UniProtKB/TrEMBL annotation:
Its cofactor is Zn(2+). This is L-ribulose-5-phosphate 4-epimerase. It is an enzyme of class 5 (isomerase). One of its GO terms (molecular function) is L-ribulose-phosphate 4-epimerase activity. The gene is araD. Keywords: Carbohydrate metabolism, Isomerase, Metal-binding, Zinc. The keyword Ubl conjugation does not apply. Belongs to the aldolase class II family. AraD/FucA subfamily.
């Protein structure tokens, strides 16, 4: 079972490269076995071209490494905070994909401008606040998770499966590692479209709530047309 998860998480990481979301080693995907309370994540700083399923690192939710000879991804504490706080998620992804990172570096949330966005994100993709100097000097990666959780106090992470961390980049999640990759791809495309939208019309406003509801809820609501996406 854990071997299957290692294989799945390895494949999810390879798919980040396939979809052009990562340069060098800039990104990471993980998955969790909720019954065992164990997460599997890629090792830190290992080139995607050489990475193998057996290189995946296994940790418990306290951050103790229970399997693997390599160091876990440097972003592991952020992934752990998300697993601890968002109990419905089974996979997390972080990338430095160009357009999503540009919005994050600008400190701007991505407004819902159209139906492509509304099919996946129920409202803006929020951007977190900047970390304080104390947070940066302290448990930095854990604090990164905390500012994400803070942003979701009034949001459902299943309705908004991703976030921009100010000055850093996007994190996304889903029911498993592959779903989290899927949302990372969607987020990058939405970021690109939103950028072009603002270039075409600097006065553009977020879409009407009615149209947002129509698109999101028919796909994800209780009467979802696409049954597999029911919340
Ligand atoms: O955010 C960062 C670094 O700023 C990371 O995403 C790294 O670029 C990838 O690190 P590893 O997963 O290889 O440790």
């Amino acid at each position: 079972m854990l071997e299957d998860l290692k294989q799945q998480v390895w494949q999810a990481n390879m798919n980040l490269q396939k979809h052009g979301l990562v340069v060098f080693t800039w990104g990471n995907a993980s998955g969790i076995d909720r019954e065992k309370g164990l997460i599997v994540i890629k090792p830190s700083g290992v080139e995607y071209d050489t990475m193998q399923p057996e290189d995946m690192v296994v940790l418990d939710l306290a951050g103790n490494q229970v399997e693997g000879n390599l160091r876990p991804s440097s972003d592991t504490p952020t992934h752990i905070v998300l697993y601890r706080n968002f109990s419905a998620i089974g996979g997390v992804v972080h990338t430095h994909s160009t357009c999503a990172t540009a919005w994050a570096q600008a400190g701007k949330s991505i407004p819902a401008f159209g139906t492509t966005h509304a099919d996946y994100f129920y409202g803006e993709v929020p951007c977190t606040r900047n970390l304080s100097r104390e947070e940066i000097q302290g448990e930095y990666e854990e604090e990164t998770g905390n500012v994400i959780v803070e942003k979701f106090e009034q949001r459902n992470p299943l309705h908004v499966p991703g976030v921009l961390v100010a000055n850093h980049g996007p994190f996304s999640w889903g029911k498993d590692a592959h779903d989290a990759v899927y949302h990372a791809v969607v987020l990058e495309e939405l970021a690109k479209m939103a950028f072009y939208t603002c270039s075409a019309n600097s006065e553009v406003k977020a879409m009407d709530q009615l149209l947002l509801d129509k698109h999101f809820l028919r796909k994800h609501g209780k009467n979802a047309y696409y049954g597999q996406n029911k919340l």
